[in-house]
Design a protein that fits this description.
It is a single chain. With 372 residues, the chain is α/β, with parallel strands linked by helices. It folds into three domains: 74 residues, DNA polymerase, domain 1, CATH 1.10.150; 174 residues, Rossmann fold (3-Layer(aba) Sandwich); 70 residues, Winged helix-like DNA-binding domain superfamily/Winged helix DNA-binding domain (Arc Repressor Mutant, subunit A), CATH 1.10.10. The chain is built from 17 helices and 14 strands. The chain has a nine-stranded mixed β-sheet with strand order 1-2-6-5-4-3-7-8-9, sandwiched between helices. A three-stranded antiparallel β-sheet has the order 11-13-12. The N and C termini lie far apart (47 Å).
Length: 372
């Protein structure tokens, strides 16, 4: 509790945002240590000037606010997850502008190894809803966490279908943890508490004002392995989420739609501009995320003796980096020139031993195992 109150107090200090809070804690070791660090040392931390260093020594009002907020969150049935907590979503930590604190209410596993976010228009059509159902039922054997924004249309439908398929689902809100918006979704939100929940970066009693929605979209994008846009107009929150996901190096999928439907303009535009992979089947998700196909058994173990020395070296390197390596990193670590490496990677990919990811990144095929 004590460390959480210290981190909350940091968030109340003017001029200190999420990035600086994480920087201060990184240099000092803990939020409590930040307040006990001499001014002379604080000023040496990048981004911390004399004004902010001085404000860290006049903290009584900020601690009072932090203690009040802590009590309000508890009263609302929520918990505070600080950036340094193990329960804080690991994938979200990967983005540089991740919130330093999130407020969560529910019973889900925010560190599920497989997470997909599904977003779309608030005016979902029957076609869009049917596609959401097909996507979620198609990946349910992987038991992913389904993330969305609890909004009208595609978002809330994704939550409902996730629950129907026995999957955990989390709604990222643009309001305080004590304010479910829209109010008509209180019932589904209550059901989500038993298998997932709701989360937000905003303090209790924060109303869902318009500027909060684009900001919360970075959490929807950052938490996921992939963002799936089902239906979207030419402009809107779903496209903002897709843009953010691209910036975070997340996979982005878009479902193609009727060329004459305004609700398909956004998805078709993402595909046309090569900002999203086309999604026509849930197996597209399995393939691009390297999830083993649910109806197939793992391949027989591969004998490394069948590979040449350079190929063996590549496989061994990728075994040490579960998330994969970029081509230039592979070249440097293997000491294989990039022009020669490209040919070796192509052969290994054709053999089904590795898979290519966006951004010239490669990782082992999760269906393959290797004999030592």
């Amino acid at each position: 509790m004590k460390e959480k109150v210290y981190q909350l107090a940091l968030s109340f200090i003017p001029g200190i945002g999420d990035i600086l809070i994480k920087q201060l804690i990184s240099y000092s070791g803990s939020a409590e240590a930040v307040f006990n660090t001499p001014n002379s040392r604080l000023r040496r931390i990048p981004g911390i000037g004399e004004k902010i260093a001085d404000s860290l020594k006049n903290t009584e009002v900020y601690f009072r606010k932090a203690e009040e907020e802590f009590e309000k969150v508890q009263k609302a049935g929520g918990v505070i997850l600080c950036y340094t907590d193990k329960a804080y979503p690991k994938k979200l930590k990967e983005i540089n502008d991740a919130p330093s604190i999130i407020f969560y209410k529910g019973n889900g596993n925010l560190n599920n190894p497989k997470v997909i976010s599904i977003v779309g228009t608030r005016s979902a059509t029957a076609y869009g809803k049917r596609i959401v159902e097909e996507i979620i039922s198609g990946v349910k054997d992987h038991n992913p966490l389904i993330v969305s924004g609890l909004a009208y249309g595609i978002d809330v439908h994704a939550h409902k279908i996730a629950l129907k398929n026995g999957l955990e689902t989390v709604g990222v809100m643009a309001s305080g943890i004590d304010i479910i918006y829209p109010g008509i979704h209180r019932k589904i939100a209550s059901q989500m508490m038993e298998s997932g929940g709701v989360m937000t970066e905003y303090l209790t009693e924060t109303k869902p004002d318009a500027p909060h929605f684009p900001t919360r979209n970075r959490i929807i994008a950052g938490m996921a392995d992939a963002v799936i846009v089902v239906e979207a107009a030419e402009r809107g929150g779903a496209l903002i989420t897709a843009e953010l996901a691209n910036g975070y190096n997340r996979e982005v999928f878009a479902v193609p739609g009727d060329l004459h439907s305004s609700y398909s303009e956004g998805c078709n535009k993402l595909i046309r501009n090569h900002k999203a992979s086309i999604l026509t089947n849930p197996k597209d998700i399995e393939y691009l995320l390297s999830w083993p196909e649910s109806d197939q058994k793992p391949d027989e173990p591969v004998d490394l003796t069948d590979l040449n020395e350079q190929e063996k070296n590549i496989i061994r390197l990728l075994q040490s980096f579960a998330d994969g390596l970029m081509v230039d990193e592979l070249s440097w670590k293997s000491q294989i020139p990039i022009n020669q490496l490209a040919s070796l990677l192509l052969n290994l990919e054709f053999s089904g031993l590795i898979v290519s990811l966006p951004g010239k990144k490669y990782k082992l095929n999760s269906k393959s195992s290797f004999k030592k």
